[in-house]
Amino acid sequence: MTDTTRLGMDFFTRDVLDVAPGLLSKVLAIRSDDGVTRRFIISETEAYRGSEDKACHASKGRTARTEIMYREGGRLYVYFVYGMYWMLNIVTGAENNPQAVLIRSFENCNGPGRVTKLLGIDKSFYGEDLTSSSRIWIEDSGFFPVYEAGPRIGIDYAGEFWKAKPWRFYLG
Asked: Alpha-carbon distance 113 to 85, whole Å?
């Protein structure tokens, strides 16, 4: 891996509705403690856009859990759900504008819980900077794929208006 392929801060500090589809076909790289680097092609993402978005955790206000979402884009927002799964999100946008992209699937690995299990993601990744981390980063594959957009999944609590937003992006 060379730094020329790693996505930089300028990629992540854009609006989540640009970053989420822009992550499709990018390569998430993760290095284990024994120095082995594995790479996975991102095939599905989901956008969460600010405190007004009732599906976004920031809609409940700034908390210890969501604090990282208020930082400048490029950091990881990791949280635990259902007492069994870590969720992997990438913070986007400018400081104090809480936005994040949920990584939903890789090619050959569907579902955000399966993704984090495959990667070995846990709370220690919370706040990790993708632009400088030596254990996790995202590389540009050079592909600009055709993709589709649809409603987000698993957010009935947010109401029909927010659930129906076509903010889930997947390879077509």
From this structure: 5
| Of 37, 152, 30, 39, residue with least CA distance to 100 | 152
Q: For 8, how many CA atoms within 13 A lie in the half-sphere containing its CB?
A: 5
**For the whole prediction, is pTM greater than 0.85?**
yes
CA dist list (Å): 46 to 35, 87, 123, 153, 154: 30, 12, 20, 9, 11
Ramachandran sector of residue 61 (left: φ over 0; alpha: ψ -120 to 50; beta: rest) = left
Domains of the chain: 9-171 (3.10.300.10)
Adjacent-strand bridge partners of 9 = none
- In 3D space, the residue among 65, 50, 52 whose CA is nearest the CA of residue 127 turns out to be 65
pLDDT tens digits, residue range 46-99?
999 999 998 998 888 898 889 999 999 999 999 998 888 999 999 999 999 999
Residue 165: C-alpha distances to residues 27, 133, 137 (Å):
26, 32, 28
Report the Cα–Cα distance between both ends of the chain, in Å, rounded: 28
